[in-house]
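Hi support team,

I submitted a single chain yesterday and got back a structure, but I'm not sure I'm reading the token output correctly. Could someone confirm the output below corresponds to the sequence I sent? I've pasted both exactly as they appear in my results page.

Thanks,
R.
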Amino acid sequence: MPDCELCGRSADDMYVVEVDGVKMQVCRACTRHGKFIGKVRREQPTPIRKPHKMTEEEEEVEMLVPDYGDRIRKKRNELGLKREELAKKLNETESVIRRLEHGDMVPDDKLVRKLEKTLGITLREKVEVKRPEAKHDTQEGLTLGDVVKIKKK
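Hi R., thanks for writing in. Yes, this is the structure output for that exact sequence:
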């Protein structure tokens, strides 16, 4: 089980949030401390040959693209669909489509797959996350306390 980079708790589901310009993997409770970007996917992908070897400190995660609302709106308009028509195809409400297009709602994985399949667009991208080595000798993961230097007054 991965550990939250803010509080250090182990969690099954990890989320990527942006805290002061830094993307971090956090538990559900710590998502309120930053801007939500996406959920970390823990599926084991088919091995892909890369020019360099992945080290233990690197991990690939699939994240929702930041401009997902614009991509949905643009493709819907290209196909000549109204929000209501797209909502019926996806078995969702029109307000869900409107909130997605405006960026007021972050779609879950199931809705992302339905949108990608119906509209023929890509809303997820693979991002390589690098983790620095922990300073302590325990086998627990790295937390924010391992990285932050506290200034004393």
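A quick pointer for reading it: The two ends are 37 Å apart (CA to CA). Let us know if anything else looks off.

Best,
Support desk
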